[in-house]
Amino acid sequence: MFLDYFALGLLVFVALVIFYGIIVIHDIPYEIAKEREHPHQDAIHYAGWVSLFTLHALWPFLWIWATLWRKERGWGFAKLEQEAHDIHHRVDQLIDQVSELQQEVERLKQTSQPASQEQKPAQDSEVK
Questions:
Q1: Could you give the C-alpha distances from 50 to 37, 45, 103, in angstroms and in order?
Q2: Helices 2-26 & 41-53, crossing angle to 10 degrees?
Q3: Where are its TM segments located (predicted)?
């Protein structure tokens, strides 16, 4: 008789722990969002409850959504935009340097051509 009540109590306890565990697991993305001061905390929380009814299909996406945001850098795209701007600026500088070098090479070719033309007849006369 005692074992029957003990088994029933244990069954109820395990069922409650499993039920509570599922709810706690589904609140993990919301807790992450709350800790990071995510701008979409409420949407993540409601979507977590909806995920209970969609057999956990949304939960991985909610976890990703919650972890993408950080208060100090936001979504992180501003840093990417800054890096892209810096790269474009550096490329423009390199293009300018290449243009200057090409002009310098052309000037050197022009100044060296008359000197090389003067040397050619002298070399031809020496050979004869």
A1: 21, 9, 67
A2: 140
A3: 6-25, 46-66
- Contact (CB, 8 A) for 49 and 28: no
Do 40 and 90 belong together in one domain? no
Of 21, 46, 20, give the one whose Cα is nearest residue 33. Answer: 46
Using one digit for the tens of pLDDT, what is the confidence trace for 102-118? 999 999 999 888 766 66
Range of the structural domain that residue 69 is part of: 1-75
Quote the pTM value: 0.55
Residues 14-30 pLDDT 10s: 999 999 998 899 899 99
Q: Are residues 68 and 121 in the same domain?
A: no
Taking the C-alpha atoms of residue 99 and residue 126, their distance in angstroms, rounded to an integer, is 40
SS (H, E, C) 6-38: HHHHHHHHHHHHHHHHHHHHHCHHHHHHHHCCC
71 with 82, same domain: the answer is: no
86 pLDDT band, cuts 50/70/90, is confident
